[in-house]
Amino acid sequence: MPTTSPEPQHVLVLNCGSSSLKFAIIDANDGHEIISGLAERLGDKAPSIKYKFNGAKTVIDLAANQAHAEAINTLVNLIKDHNLDEHLIAVGHRVVHGGEHFTKSVLIDEDVINGITKASSLAPLHGHANLLGISSAQASFIGLPQVAVFDTAFHQTMDEVAYLYALPYKLYTDYGVRRYGMHGTSHYYVAGQTAKLLNQPVEKSNFISAHLGNGCSVTAIKNGKSVDTSMGLTPLAGIVMGTRSGDIDPGLFNFLTTQLSYNAQQIDNLLNQESGLLGISELSNDCRTIEEAAVAGHKQARLALDIFCYRLAKQIAAYMVPLQCLDALIFTGGIGENSDIIRENVINQLAFLGFSCNQKSNLDARFGNQGIISSANTSPKAVVMPTNEEWVIALDAANIVKEL
Ligand code: ADP
């Protein structure tokens, strides 16, 4: 019987940061990437767009101070010049904060914009950029359905015991102060893929997934659902990250303000941009650079790696409390997918849970390769699973469009 290939279902995926815009056109049928790129330094002196299409990399310089709207305009021209709008069925927006209101992806209409605007008070920088991306895309792709996919949605299954802070209850009821968690699309995707790899239904799987990129978070997944996660009201909480501190003693605020005269903005910068691997190493936020320096004898680079791994291992062990039993620990994100050094270190610290690292499999699972990296016949398993948030966004958008 001749097989017919499915109709292309191309989705333009937009991920707007405060000064950057990641984009890709993905075929929702198979995750195939048609074009992808990054606009950066938006609103600054020398913004630019870099993109990859048909194997070639190109850079377009934007005029000084051009920001999201102009970058999207340039992107639209690019798409039209290459006839890439032909099979576009939707635009999928990664939205960082959906508050408690959004528990799944939705078609964007006026109510949704109002909901995102409301949730934006919880993450002003990201929220503002997300809304800018949505309004620019709506203006450029008139009539094309726009879908919002929330980074927080996967974690909306957490119980109040996991998401409430021990603060005056009114801060939650009146202002929504609670743990929301981020990287939900990634944790959801790698959990599903790991269940496939282990040949077991995700609804009957207990996983701990460690998304380790520039931002890092760990999620406890029980029977396929998020039951706890390390990021909180904002992405600053939890384990050590590239430039973010992760958890600290909140008493530090008083110390910094009274002893060192910091204001709120300076504290925010310190914790978000000057801490983490960068803060400890005083060298870089980039894990590769730190690993190379540590091997060459840089003491603070070694210390940064040791603290990163120790805090990560401690967080993973803590999630045995909600899970009680574990099928697999999943590593993903740029560090999780590539750093055999960090994976081995963390697995060794967790040997008391039954983990054992297979060194050859650990070395093989790099540069986009998935695989089981724990020794044969040991449990729980340790798995490397490349993430693909763009595909999840494209799939959600395509499924919503199907229902229209
Ligand atoms: P983002 O959160 O911006 O999407 P990524 O998921 O791309 O970030 O992760 C970036 C991190 O991955 C950086 O710290 C980078 O050094 C690290 N990384 C990438 N490749 C390697 C490698 N081969 N070894 C160690 N770390 C790596």
UniProtKB/TrEMBL annotation:
Its main location: cytoplasm. NCBIfam families: ackA. It comes from the Bacteria. Catalyzes the formation of acetyl phosphate from acetate and ATP. Can also catalyze the reverse reaction. Substrate binds at residue 94. It comes from Pseudoalteromonas issachenkonii. It holds the Pfam family Acetate_kinase. The record marks 183, 244 as: Transition state stabilizer. CDD domains: ASKHA_NBD_AcK_PK. Mg(2+) binds at residues 15, 389. Its EC number is 2.7.2.1. It is an enzyme of class 2 (transferase). It is found in: Cytoplasm. PROSITE patterns: ACETATE_KINASE_1, ACETATE_KINASE_2. GO terms for molecular function: acetate kinase activity. Keywords: ATP-binding, Cytoplasm, Kinase, Magnesium, Metal-binding, Nucleotide-binding, Transferase. This is Acetate kinase. The active site is at 151 (proton donor/acceptor). Pathway: Metabolic intermediate biosynthesis; acetyl-CoA biosynthesis; acetyl-CoA from acetate: step 1/2. ATP binds at residues 22, 211-215, 286-288, 334-338. Mg(2+). Can also accept Mn(2+). Belongs to the acetokinase family. Homodimer.
